[in-house]
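Hello K.,

You asked for the raw outputs rather than the summary table, so here they are, unedited. I folded two proteins back to back in the same session to keep the settings identical. This is the first:
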Amino acid sequence: MSALEQATVDQVTVNLTYTDAEGQTTRREVEPMIFALTAGQWKLVAWCRLREGIRWFALTRIQRATVTRHPSTGH
């Protein structure tokens, strides 16, 4: 199981290093919710604590994912 899958099952947050479509790289703590396949691309749907909202993260743009021990808050 990948780190993202394990965090989803365990309902804990993940620290991501993520590069967006414009090439900006950010570090975010997210609460994974579900994986979705859209337009042939797998994405992680998660509550982003940085942006305080649900975001869709393309798996191909996640540079690094580290599971934390912080519980998800149920978003």
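The second followed immediately with the same parameters:
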Amino acid sequence: MQVANNMAVSIHYTLTNDAGEVLDSSIGQDTLVYLHGTGNIISGLESAITGKVVGDKFNVRIAPENAYGEIHDDRVQVISRDMFEGIDDIQVGMQFHADVSQGPGVVTVVSVNDNDITIDGNHPLAGMALTFDVEVVNVRPATAEEMAHGHIHGDGCHH
């Protein structure tokens, strides 16, 4: 059975950057299970998996525009320390959920200077080409409920 839209797909993957550093991996853990064709994974990876079958192993390098996008300078801004009410110790690298220009997202503190805190609303992997080593572990038709909800239920479902 080939991977196509409205299929429940289970994969094992290892994600690396161009320096060869492992950024994420499912090896030694549960497979990643997702509903194909609904944008639950980055578009470049979804395209690469389309048409594959169980047992297929492949490596794909995905350009930033088909991964987490380019870096947008307008998503980096300086805000007042007052915006972090109740947080006394603000450190570079801390991440916070916030409403950013494109909706709810995560911002990362990139510098702390007295009362000025610089935050970056870009995805931490924005601007990076990503390489995935992928093994297709399982493919099955999604249930009507899974298609209605836009994600997979059962094994690997954390909702």
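The CA atoms of residues 103 and 121 lie 10 Å apart.

Happy to rerun anything if the numbers look odd on your end.

Regards,
P.
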